[in-house]
């Protein structure tokens, strides 16, 4: 192999594998070496699935040699957040030491779909214990210890898909699968300087994924670019009879050319945020205004955060009812996680039902507003990556403001985050594009246009760049 595959996009790797310029087995070996070298250093990996990966890579290589090319993911390694069930004796820890030996005799649907696409499962990646559903507020709440940002090991990779973000940002895998209930894909994308897509609720089957909140949980890709996220989404989307909430709408990734060229900015979205985050977002708006009209909008006065929080607390209380009643929370890492499950049991049924009814009103009102725009935009997070040894302000606990994240997750709307600059401390910041339900192609197209005109997504930490040709 004449050139390293590290920090190459999925599209580029796929093209080179299809043309037989590079071998899936060689590519897999390169990434296995990276996982072994940097995974422990960044606390981003739980299990390296070397034997399975080499077997799948060899199978992909043989198929391609015989002319049985399956598509752009064929022969490309990836990592899965460790809440996705994997068969073959591979542990699925849910990020908690309590479950470090837990195994399943089946694969999550996402894992099965990626296998059928020819992708190579190379690692199970770190996450916040129980996907952050117990109320964590510190990076240490993980079986691997605090997962580190590729840009500064003294800062946090974000949660709860911490390892998925860190592994992609460190060049340990070309792409990863994460999950989001409220911020768990977009936060790591922001902190790690990569792209992350939260698909529409129901777009991707959640069968085989740990349930935290049945009406909020979503699975989606993290990769180096929005374009890569679209390629991955096409492979994992689709109806699954094992997940009744999955949609039967077929998804094919294309660049959307039927656009209004209008972007909406929620009034007050820049209040109470880091100054450099604000500065980078304002600069991004100026760049986008070369192609798009941007308009500040008022959202209806609704309890977006309170509704989303109530739904998540009530549903997570039910999902972990047996866990809580057995007193297993005492075995979790973060002290606040040891009592968090009990607080959730105090949510009243009438409050949960009221939140569901208000969500229905929110959905109609927000869809009417969004019908006038291609996307709503905002900073992905109010701050860059926080220090790894400090507690952080979380929107789920009400310690910070995140109207767009709350509304987007409550209503199951798609959103993609891409890098849009750096702070003076060389920490990445992100911008997100949120669209109407099932309009992933529209927001991915806008985000890809943005990345075509910028180079934030092709910048990588100097210490993680390959030093020599392999």
Question: What would you say this structure looks like, in words?
Answer:
The chain has an eleven-stranded mixed sheet, sandwiched between helices. A two-stranded antiparallel sheet has the order 4-5. With 470 residues, the protein is of the alpha/beta class. The chain has 14 helices and 13 strands.
Give the fraction of residues assigned to helices: 25-40%
Q: Give average pLDDT, whole number.
A: 95
Instruction: Name the structural class.
Output: alpha/beta
Task: State the shape.
Answer: globular
Oligomeric description of these chains:
single chain
The largest pleated sheet is described as: 11 strands, mixed
Number of strands: 13
Termini gap: 7 Å
Query: What's the tally of helices?
Result: 14
Q: How large, in whole angstroms, is the Cα Rg?
A: 21 Å
How much of the sequence lies in strands comes to 5-15%
**Element pattern in H and E:** HHEHEHEEEHEHEEHEHEHHHHEHEEH
Give the low-pLDDT segments: none
* Sheet with most strands: strand arrangement: 1-3-2-6-8-7-12-13-11-9-10
